[in-house]
Design a protein that fits this description.
381 residues, six-stranded parallel sheet, alpha/beta, 20% strand, single chain, seven-stranded parallel sheet
Length: 381
């Protein structure tokens, strides 16, 4: 039997998510997505200037050329590359070619902070193109040559993009969200490139099939190893003394540190417990009102450490960064999350080393799987 109502925005047809207002059906799954939509504008071929102030490695150049070939052949691609490999840079030549052909291009990410940072990078790289950012309440301008946006904002664009580049496909809130996935498909009229350091096995197998493309890059651009996590297994009462000892060491060495915790409550509680003994720190989580300012101050060296939830699991690169995962045996930390967190350390070519410490009451399968994956990637050096 055909469903009585199919949502035109997200494709939902489940009766339990369908409500009625004045006798007319509406979708409860995506009811929060409302607002203006972009107009489809026909574009012509033009000259696009790409001003990249550094050179790609041989591996990056090879994968960049392969991505471009896939797109021109009508093939969707998944780029499976380690943290710090330079995934974003692989797409620049493709973006330039697509825009030069008059194609409409999007670069989508789940998290607003990362989208804002990427917008500035792309704006600096494509100097004669109209690069815009669309996120949250920043949506007064919806049309441009290259649109950098959060995945939530894809609802504004129906069959609009010839090319969508989607980064962090395995990150909250996109991962496992069928509404956002449906909006991604709805916004696409051409082909896509997915970027991830930790794609699921299902996604990898899907892109090994005929008609799809899987591109792999297992080394960082600076050709130095990803820091291998150290396991520090202790009873819970010794966690804070150990943490204070490491923060004191990093303070002496003038090295910044991120301390990851599994919950918002623990971020604030832990900070209050150690602040007197470990000065020049702060804590941050996704809905903290001054989050952007705190992160900016950390980048600028005003804080020596931050206690953070998963909000800084991705999209942050700081010279000399050290990483501690507090309660790394918590259920929130699966293999992919721990690999991403470890990938925050050693990203800079002039500071490729750093400590990654998993502080836990016991070794978990996720911790061991993350360590094995990082060692495996390092074996390609």
């Amino acid at each position: 039997m055909e469903p009585l109502f199919v949502c035109p925005l997200c494709g939902n047809s489940e009766p339990r998510y369908i409500g009625y207002r004045n006798g007319k059906p509406y979708c409860r799954k995506c009811v929060s997505f409302t607002g203006r939509s972009a107009r489809i504008v026909q574009k012509t071929c033009r000259n696009v200037v790409l001003d990249l102030k550094y050179s790609l490695t041989l591996e990056q150049k090879g994968l960049s050329a392969e991505l471009l070939e896939n797109y021109m052949s009508g093939i969707d691609s998944l780029v499976y590359a380690v943290c710090g490999a330079g995934k974003t840079e692989l797409t620049f030549a493709l973006i330039a070619r697509a825009m030069s052909l008059g194609h409409q291009v999007a670069f989508a990410l789940p998290r607003r902070d990362v989208a804002m940072e990427l917008y500035h990078r792309l704006k600096d790289a494509f100097t004669n193109s109209k690069v815009i950012a669309v996120y949250g309440d920043h949506s007064s301008v919806l049309e441009g040559d290259l649109i950098v946006l959060t995945t939530h904002q894809l609802y504004r664009y129906e069959k609009y993009f010839d090319l969508i580049i989607m980064d962090e496909i395995d990150a909250f809130p996109y991962k496992g969200n069928d509404v956002l996935e449906a909006m991604f498909q709805r916004a696409l009229r051409g082909h896509y490139v997915l970027l991830s350091a930790t794609p699921s096995d299902e996604l990898i197998q899907e892109h090994k099939k005929e008609g799809k493309g899987l591109l792999e890059l297992r080394t960082r651009f600076h050709k130095r190893p990803i820091p291998v996590p150290q396991f520090e297994v202790r009873i819970r009462s010794l966690f804070i003394p150990y943490l204070l000892k490491k923060l004191y060491q990093y303070r002496k060495e003038k090295l910044p540190c991120l301390v990851f915790v599994p919950s918002v409550n623990l971020a604030e509680t832990l900070y209050k417990k150690i602040a007197m003994f470990a000065p020049k720190g702060n804590f941050v989580y996704s809905k903290k009102p001054d989050r952007s300012e705190v992160i900016k101050d950390f980048r600028e060296g005003k804080y020596l450490y931050l206690i953070t939830t998963a909000v800084l699991e991705r999209g942050i690169t700081i010279k000399g960064l050290q990483v501690i995962v507090f309660e790394a045996d918590g259920p929130i930390y699966d293999r992919a999350a721990l690999v991403q967190i470890a990938g925050r350390a050693g990203r800079k070519a002039d500071a490729p080393k750093g400590e990654v410490i998993f502080l836990a009451r016991e070794r978990t399968p996720a911790m061991e799987e993350a360590e094995r994956e990082i060692r495996y990637c390092n074996s390609f050096l």
